[in-house]
Amino acid sequence: MKLTGELKDKVGKAETKEQVRDLISKAGIELNDEELDNIAGGLGLRAPQKAPDCTSQSF
Q: What global pTM score does this model have?
């Protein structure tokens, strides 16, 4: 499935996966969790990852 037009713009502005789910649902599109994760992940909505602590390693 490919999002187009106004829906794509709205989903692109969503800040959370729940907002994406609501927008998609209101458009009459049903997605399973994996499909929703693919869309949300493509928008950079994944949980932030903690960077490794490199200060304690000796080189």
A: 0.59
Domain ranges of the chain: 5-42
C-alpha distances (whole Å) from 51 to each of 42, 48, 54, 55 are 20, 9, 9, 11
| Amino acid present at 29 | I
The string of DSSP letters for 1-59 reads: ----HHHHHHHHH--SHHHHHHHHHHTT----HHHHHHHHHHTT-SPPPPPP--TT---
Q: What are phi and psi of 9, to 5 degrees?
A: -60, -45
pLDDT (tens place) for every residue of the chain, 59 residues total: 567 788 888 888 888 888 988 998 999 988 888 888 877 665 554 444 455 556 655 55
